[in-house]
Write a sequence for this structure.
């Protein structure tokens, strides 16, 4: 069985997004690829606050 060839994807972002990624990379002492890997692997955070069951 042959292994599938890895694929690459290109995503174009605005200069503002690139600036945030570059500053985050500098703060985390990594490159932009490292920041993107971190964001992809980070656990999902709910946009809505979790409800409390006070009853």
């Amino acid at each position: 069985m042959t292994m599938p060839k890895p694929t690459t994807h290109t995503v174009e972002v605005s200069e503002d997004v690139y600036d945030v990624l570059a500053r985050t990379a500098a703060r985390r002492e990594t490159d932009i690829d490292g920041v993107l890997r971190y964001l992809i692997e980070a656990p999902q955070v709910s946009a809505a606050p979790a409800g409390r069951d006070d009853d």
Notes: The two ends are 58 Å apart (CA to CA). The helical segments are 15-27, 32-41.
